[in-house]
């Protein structure tokens, strides 16, 4: 069932969802470049752009070992993706000649991944974030320097049909919903809904 927003939004926001059925077809480099270009323009604290990405496609030697580091349940469906992208973020930043912790490295990498996912969708490719994977082993496999956090893996591909998906995932293969804004946006203090009918936010 298509998602129906409570308030008007650009359709790209409700049309993006995370399928598990992928066709496995090869992804053009132009699609990857556009999606990464969108990620590139994400905002970040002091414009330090802490995000980095490592891409693997099925023909590369990295594919099988990386797939093997996903939680087995994730690896089952992600094997038919067209690309796996590991998202990293630099935990440190240089400020006034001193290297200090960057408190927003994950927040900023999240903004970049959102840009990536929405641009990919515009081009007809779906993405699915994956947190269930072995971060330490991924760090070793990719020779990620210590100062970078291993944030997530993203599976990217063309959405397939149910016939291309293991039956154990069929029940969940549909866009989900969201809690209402009244439980998410507050005014004055935490927990006080900003937008219920009784309140005037002006
Ligand atoms: C950081 C992150 C980690 C996730 N980890 C997993 C995962 O390990 N396995 C999985 O099947 N889905 C995973 N997801 C997908 C979420 O469950 C999904 O985005 C969420 O339910 C919202 O659904 P939607 O993306 O279809 O709108 C992850 C998503 C994100 C952003």
Automatic annotation (TrEMBL):
Q: What is the official name of this protein in its record?
A: Nitroreductase family protein
Return the similarity comment.
Belongs to the nitroreductase family.
Q: Which GO terms describe its molecular function?
A: oxidoreductase activity
Show the stretches that span the lipid bilayer: none
Q: Which PANTHER family match?
A: NAD(P)H NITROREDUCTASE YDGI-RELATED, NADH DEHYDROGENASE_NAD(P)H NITROREDUCTASE XCC3605-RELATED
Q: Which organism is it from?
A: Novosphingobium flavum
Does the record bear Kinase in its keywords?
no
Q: Where is the Nitroreductase domain?
A: 14-158
Q: Which UniProt keywords apply?
A: Oxidoreductase
